[in-house]
Amino acid sequence: MMPTRTIHKPSAPGTTAHYLRDYDRTRREFSWAQARLELVGRADAHLNIAHEALDHRIALGSGDIVAARFIDRDWNRVEFTYRELKRLADRFANVLGALAVPRGATVATLLGRVPELFAVGLGTFAAGAVFSPLFSAFGPEPLKTRLQLGHAQVLVTTETLYRRKVAALREALPELRHVLLLREDSGGALPERCADFAALMRNAPDAYDPAPTTDADVALLHFTSGTTGKPKGVTLTHAAVIAQHATSRLVLDLHPGEVFWCTADPGWVTGIAYGLIGPLTRGVTMIVDREEFDAQRWYRILEAERVAVWYTAPTAIRMLMKAGTALTRTRTYPQLRHMASVGEPLNAEAVEWGMEAFGMPFHDTWWQTETGAIMIANFPACDVVPGSMGRAVPGIEARVVRRTGAGTLEILESPEQVGEIALRPGWPSMFSSYLEDPNRYRQCFIDGWYLAGDLARRDQDGQFWFVGRADDIIKSSGHLISPFEVESALMRHPAVAQVAVIGVPDAVAGQAVKAFVELRSGFEPSDALRLKILGHARRLLGAAVAPREIAFSDSLPRTRSGKIMRRLLRARELGLPEGDLSTLEGRE
Ligand code: 6R9
């Protein structure tokens, strides 16, 4: 398990940050109070993300810099300066005012990577409402659950997505007062009980003073998956911007005026923390690709847009590796100076491939929706040990621990012991609640530590190495998927009697969703039935969540209490000894 080699970083002050070359000193000197002061510039009680991302940036002289450049399928580029983005955000804040949407109300989006998403997100922060970006690849079932759980009062989406996924749910969403639609072509009548987003924006004034929110006011509602029951509504406060700003500098090394590309979808926490908020507070120009992954396209973007810093995910890196280094070499990337990754284990080979293809390693970073910002990272000016996630971010105390009983834990001080990642609460982007589930929230904290539910070990240099998840949650292409949510949808098919869903290893996506189905009597396994059930799952869940594979089983393994043993299925699938399950996963 020992590292094969260390990638030494050339010292190049001026081009890469040197402040983290001396990791220990940077850690010692760091405080969150100072980080807040550096961002906000004053010590008063008010803090609003939109103010920090726009008004404050403009005051610092970034008004005429391009904040975001959107690229569409045909390579059309649409860009907005910080000042223009502020006008759009302000219009939307005024739209919320005109609709009498109160502070604290949830404003959801179901949008791809489009300028309107930026306007809605930032306008919602400015208005003091709560922004809840939903993943546009979700099917109706996950959408209904999340809109209900989040008590969304406003939804902004496209006419197509609305007709396909939301229209049929309207009866089930009595709290959803306003649906604002982006229209692909403005002909024809709007669907019932919907308003035209563009018309509302046109009629709204383009000046707005951000609401005087405080560090404790909720700004964001992200949904993440649980092993059982409903998805978890993770709330982050306006103070999250402090940690997102600090890590955008310490970890991503963003400097004003530079070009930055975060490839994450806005329906996922990374797409907001580092695809919207953090980078804007650093005054960079963000590249936003409206299309999905395509190796040739991505290389063209890196070259043509002169990307300096690039934040992406292991699945994408593995797909680029698969496409071959010859393709990487068809272009040059003289501006590119820092590459980072998040979301799933970044294997050592992928880090090394970065050296081969780009002459620099990918820097792994670890965090969660709940942590609101990067917690563990390989820093720009520090040597990289391929396969390691790096060290704790300044201001973050991270340890590996073992649960020793109800409410107690042991900190594993000696290196190389495997345990759960624990973080000492007190950083500003820590989630403030699981919506309407205080018990679940409380259970995350033991003996003064937040337990992340991930297993890791720490070497003698304080580098963290990812081992696995301590629960059944699946991570496929960087997206967390709840086996429970998939199982519930499959159970609604008339042929399905019992079902268990697990993640199986996949060379590119990390994990793929596989369902084991026990049929009701009267149904026989067949390829036709398999396809029907798969189609049913796709319709309800969306392609990003639905299983890729279905296996029929005569009887699924159960505990005596009748609970299906996903772990046993996983052990069988991986060819691991069934009796040795304790080594497969951590404790629950
Ligand atoms: C930002 C984000 C969180 C879970 C996390 C862990 C996995 C994230 C990782 C990683 C290995 C890394 N994860 N970063 N696993 N190496 N560098 O991903 O948030 O969607 O909430 O997922 O993702 O299992 O607990 P989220």
Short description:
This protein is of the alpha/beta class and 588 residues long. Helix content is 31%, strand content 24%. The site of ligand 6R9 has 22 residues, from helix 10, strand 14, strand 22 and strand 23.
Keywords:
588 residues, Rossmann fold, 18 helices, 31% helix, alpha/beta, GMP Synthetase, Chain A, domain 3
Report the strand count: 28
**How many helical stretches?**
18
CATH architecture of the largest domain: 3-Layer(aba) Sandwich
User: So, the CATH homologous superfamily of the largest domain?
Assistant: ANL, N-terminal domain
Residue share in β-strands: 15-25%
Percent of residues in helices = 25-40%
Number of domains: 2
Q: Outline the biggest β-sheet.
A: 9 strands, mixed
End-to-end C-alpha gap: 25 Å
Oligomer: single chain
Structural class computed from helices and strand pairing: alpha/beta
Radius of gyration: 24 Å
For the record, the CATH class of the largest domain is: Alpha Beta
- Ligand roster: ligand 6R9
Shape type: globular
User: How do the strands of the widest beta sheet line up side by side?
Assistant: 2-1-11-10-12-13-14-15-16
Low-confidence stretches: 580-588
Using the coordinates shown, work out and report the CATH topology of the largest domain.
Rossmann fold
Summarize model confidence as the mean pLDDT.
92
Structural write-up:
Strands 2-1-11-10-12-13-14-15-16 form a nine-stranded mixed sheet. Strands 17, 18, 19, 21, 22 and 23 form a six-stranded antiparallel sheet that branches. The chain has a five-stranded parallel sheet with strand order 4-3-5-6-7, sandwiched between helices. The chain is built from 18 helices and 28 strands. The longest helix has 17 residues, at 82-98. 50% of the residues are buried. The protein has two domains: 23-458, 3-Layer(aba) Sandwich (Rossmann fold), CATH 3.40.50; 476-574, GMP Synthetase, Chain A, domain 3 (2-Layer Sandwich), CATH 3.30.300. With 588 residues, the chain is an alpha/beta fold. Mean pLDDT is 92; it is low at 580-588. Bound molecules: ligand 6R9. The site of ligand 6R9 has 22 residues, from helix 10, strand 14, strand 22 and strand 23.
